[in-house]
Design brief:
Layout (H helix, E strand, L loop, with lengths): L4 H11 L2 H41 L6 H4 L6 E4 L5 E5 L16 H11 L11 H13 L10 H9 L9 H21 L2 H11 L9 H9 L8 H8 L14 H17 L5 H9 L2 H15 L5 H18 L3 H10 L3 E4 L3 H11 L9 E11 L5 E5 H10 L12 H15 L5 E12 L1 E7 L6 E5 L24 H13 L8 E4 L2 E3 L2 E3 L9 E4 H6 L3 H12 L1 H10 L25 H12 L3 E3 L4 E5 L5 E4 L4 E3 L3 H14 L28 E6 L5 E7 L4 E7 L15 H13 L14 E7 L20 E7 L11 E7 L13 E9 L20 E3 L2 E4 L39
Parallel strand pairs: 1-3
Antiparallel strand pairs: 1-2, 3-14, 4-5, 4-6, 7-8, 7-19, 9-12, 10-11, 13-16, 14-15, 17-18, 18-19, 20-21, 22-23, 23-25, 24-25
Length: 887
């Protein structure tokens, strides 16, 4: 080292160099800046990290007891006796809530021991479990276990929808919020509440959510009755409900069960003896047996429930403002309690009788057939029963109507059909054959006072699916003569335009190019009243009443007030009186229309449920049905009295000759007041009977789904009335008969049955064929004031049978009928003149004598001369009776 003077001076010059000093300052400034930058970045990073964590925490969903409790539960349906009839459930909602007190200790311990051993000690998160899980991830040890506590899993299931994030960032964000919320939840909810909600939330396979439903699904027992081995089975499912399903994944679940029992023993929950006993239990055999029974007994919804579903959805949309989707979700996953109007006793009677083959005079089958074939040329063709009809036409089978006598006959026909289609090299892609019993029937019974539907049947034969064709509620069929009451007679009487005694002349009746005829073969019956028209279902009387008194417009208006919603503007025509309408009616609406008459004229919309409670037991809908008055109580009684007469013994026309019978006698219930009306369409495609007692109103329809005609060979047209009588007789067993009370708005008067006016003593009662005077019911104030002008006393020449001249050798005085202008010769009236008599023209009318040739039908008098015609004390002549035809 040089310590010389020069060296020292050099060093001093270097130390005092401005450049050296500047460089040192620059370097020091750089270091300071770098330190500040690092410090800033560190603070910035910490701030950003803190902000991000705070933002994640701040964005965490709110959590409280209400949000943690599962909100998707199955809906339970109860009948009027409080019995559970159905469980409405969709995927993700088959859950029933269990309380902590219901949970067996072994079940709680099994889940805690395996899922979260420190559950009772930690504050929502378990740092030990988290570190163990992290270590397992880093080392690749999949057996190390997860880091989530039961509290975290509850939050994941209830708040985060099960944790289905796709990216790592989303999973990290959810996990941080989960930790935060777990600590928060642990502070506001007891451990018992947390474990209870967790066990009510978890998915346990086979659409079983929560341990309560799973206990029934796998073991067919209530949760409180589970054994130790069964508890361990359930605890082993939740980690992977598909893999560890005890039905389809028995081996995997069994291995898991052993592990869980070992955990229970190691953690001091069970003894070695209890562990060995549980391991020895053949629990999986029981599970398989329960599964077989469950599948065998699984049934589709009943027809009542099918309609209930529609009614509840509509009520939710109308009363709660729900959309279709909201109503559907609430119904199937809202955990509702729906209390229905269904009477289990009545429903069982309806099901038994409608399903009883002995109640039908024919057993046929119709089919729905689908066949898809790819032919060898590569062309794919889809065949149906329509193609089958063309096949029969091609082979010259003109008598084929789509009906079969047996299942064997169906299969033989299908085999022949397929043989005509399929050639070598063709491939069948799919084939489906569905057989349906025919003729079909539907039945509705309701309490007319409350509008509550007590039972329905939407068809006979096995019901194979839910929400299928319901012939009782959503099928429209032509109502036939049942509409005479609704559209013609009820409006005429209710408006005061007519009475039960008002007469119309039954003869050839043509409107435009349409000529109307009656259903019976005995010709026209001359003067006939509305009472006659109801009892004998007289077409001409109904049509003339509609066209001459009511008008089709008013008839449609009344029908709509009766609750018939299927009428169109094209139904303003004469056929309305006979049920000849565009679309037809449903059994439910037609039955409720007649229930209006049974209820004194007050319409009550038919209901299938009384109230709906939400999952918490609060009333969601209190179903008070809508009502409105359609008829005066006097009108309702008058119609009831006439329809009650139609159900009594059939009456012939006077003097024992042919004529129509009453149409409802086959439905008459012994020992119980009843009234009703039958209906048969012109082609015998639809047959109806709707009637009521003081207690219930019921309607039955029968026919073929594809509108084949009912004939004596394939069912006949009267079996439905017998079926109605059988059902209603059983329903009313043991009930007293209060009758149909006469309201104060009713009075009586003696009238002439041929004119509907006040009877003339000495004229109307001196008719050679019987007393034409009877007592009729009237709405107060509508008793006729005019006297009979149909019966006249006249003197004629005994030789010429014409009005006498001064040269007449002998004269005869008798009672004659006056015919309407232009009616001479259009009915059988002219056959009732005395031998050799001619008709006599007087004041533009025709008069004929009412005696004479007893070999011809006495149809000028029309129906009503049998005993008991009209109200008690009518003074009717006692003529003979004849059996009813069953119409």
């Amino acid at each position: 080292m040089n310590y010389g003077k020069q060296s020292v001076e050099k060093k001093l010059r270097t130390a005092n160099s401005k450049t050296r000093k500047y460089s040192a300052k620059v370097f020091l400034a750089f270091l300071k800046s770098l330190f500040v930058l690092f410090l800033f970045c560190g603070i910035l990073a910490a701030s950003i990290g803190f902000g991000m964590v705070k933002g994640i925490i701040d964005n965490a969903p709110e959590v409280d007891i209400a949000t943690i409790v599962p909100n998707e539960y199955a809906t339970t349906v109860y009948d009027s006796a409080g019995n559970v009839t159905e469980t409405l459930v969709t995927a993700g909602s088959n859950r029933e809530e269990a309380t902590y007190e219901e949970l067996p200790k072994n079940l709680v311990n099994a889940f805690v021991a395996y899922e979260d051993s420190r559950f009772w000690q930690h504050n929502g998160i378990d740092p030990r479990s988290i570190m163990r899980a992290v270590r397992g991830v880093l080392t690749g040890d999949s057996s190390a276990g997860g880091g989530s506590t039961i509290t975290q899993q509850l939050i994941k299931n209830s708040v985060f929808g099960g944790g289905m994030e796709k990216s790592f960032g989303e999973r990290l964000e959810r996990k941080m919020q989960e930790w935060f919320l777990a600590v928060k939840l642990d502070g506001i909810m007891s451990k018992e509440q947390i474990i209870t909600n967790y066990l009510n939330t978890i998915n346990l396979g086979n659409n079983s959510l929560g341990v309560k439903v799973a206990a029934r699904r796998y073991f067919n027992k209530e949760i409180s009755d589970l054994t130790l081995s069964e508890c361990a089975v359930l605890a082993g499912i939740t980690q992977n409900p598909s893999k560890f399903n005890p039905i389809t994944g028995q081996k995997a679940n069994s291995d898991k069960q052993k592990v869980i029992l070992q955990y229970l023993h190691d953690q001091g929950y069970i003894s070695s003896e209890e562990e060995d006993e549980a391991l020895a239990d053949d629990v999986y055999s029981r599970i398989q047996n329960v599964d077989i029974v469950t599948k065998e007994t699984s049934t589709p919804y009943s027809y009542f429930t099918d309609e209930l579903v529609e009614q509840v959805k509509e009520a939710m949309k109308e009363q709660l403002g729900y959309t279709d989707t909201q109503a559907h979700n609430m119904l199937y996953s809202g955990g509702l309690s729906i209390y229905t109007t269904q009477d289990p006793h009545i429903q069982s009677i309806v099901d038994e009788e409608v399903g009883n083959p002995s109640n039908y005079t024919a057993a046929k089958y119709s089919i729905e057939y689908r066949l898809s074939v790819t032919h060898r040329d590569g062309n794919t063709v889809h065949y149906s029963e329509e193609s089958l009809k063309r096949y029969h036409k091609d082979i010259g089978d003109s008598g084929y109507d789509g009906l079969y006598n047996s299942e064997e006959e169906i299969q033989n026909d299908i085999n022949g059909y397929k043989a005509s289609i399929i050639q070598e090299g063709d491939t069948i892609l799919g084939e489906r054959l569905q057989k349906t019993l025919q003729p079909q029937a539907s039945f509705v019974i309701m309490d007319q006072k409350t509008g509550q539907v007590k039972a329905i049947s939407g068809g006979r034969g096995e019901k194979t699916a839910s929400l299928t064709l319901n012939r009782a509620t959503n099928t429209l069929r032509q109502p036939g003569s049942t509409f005479k009451i609704i559209t013609a007679f009820a409006p005429a009487i209710d408006t005061g335009s007519a009475t039960l005694g008002t007469v119309y002349y039954d003869s050839v009746y043509t409107i435009g190019n349409k000529t109307f005829s009656n259903w019976y073969k005995s010709g026209y019956q001359g003067y006939s009243s509305i009472r006659d028209g109801i009892i004998y279902s007289m077409n001409i009387v109904a049509v003339r009443c509609l066209m001459e008194t009511v008008t089709p417009q008013l008839g449609v208006e009344y029908a709509r007030n009766f609750g018939i919603t299927s009428l169109r503007d094209t139904d303003y025509n004469p056929a309305l009186a006979l049920g000849g309408i565009t679309d037809g009616v449903s059994n439910l609406e037609l039955t409720s229309a007649y229930a209006t008459i049974a209820n004194g004229g007050l319409y009550t919309k038919p209901t299938f449920f009384t109230r709906i409670l939400d999952h918490d037991g609060k009333i969601l809908i209190d179903n008070t049905p809508e009502t409105h008055r359609v008829l005066k109580d006097s009108t309702a009684f008058l119609l009831t009295d006439a329809m009650a007469g139609s159900m009594e013994s059939s009456r012939k026309f006077s003097q024992g000759n042919s004529g129509p019978s009453s149409t409802s006698t086959a439905a008459n219930i012994p020992g119980m007041s009843n009234a009703g009306k039958s209906g048969t369409t012109t082609g015998n495609n639809d047959i109806w009977f709707v009637g009521y007692t003081p207690y219930y109103t019921a309607g039955i329809w029968a026919g073929y789904d594809s509108n084949q005609k009912l004939t004596s060979q394939n069912g006949g047209t009267s079996f439905h009335k017998v079926l109605w009588r059988k059902i209603m007789s059983r329903v009313h067993e043991g009930m007293s008969d209060p009758g149909f009370p006469v309201p104060d708005s009713i009075e009586t008067a003696n009238i002439c049955r041929k004119s509907g006016k006040l009877a003339v003593s000495g004229i109307c009662n001196n008719d050679p064929r019987g007393n034409a005077i009877y007592t009729e019911y009237f709405a107060r104030g509508t008793v006729p004031t005019d006297v009979c002008n149909i019966h006249v006393r006249a003197t004629v020449c005994s030789v010429s049978h014409r009005l006498p001249t001064p040269y007449c050798p002998e004269r005869t005085t008798a009672i004659f009928l006056v015919l309407p202008p232009g009616e001479e010769g259009t009915t059988d009236d002219s056959a009732f003149a005395m031998p050799g008599y001619c008709t006599i023209h007087s004041a533009n009318s025709v008069i004929i004598p009412p005696g004479g040739d007893t070999d011809s039908p006495d149809s000028d008098y029309g129906p009503g001369y049998g005993p008991g015609y009209g109200p008690p004390g009518s003074g009717s002549a006692g003529q003979g009776q004849w059996p009813g035809s069953g119409y």
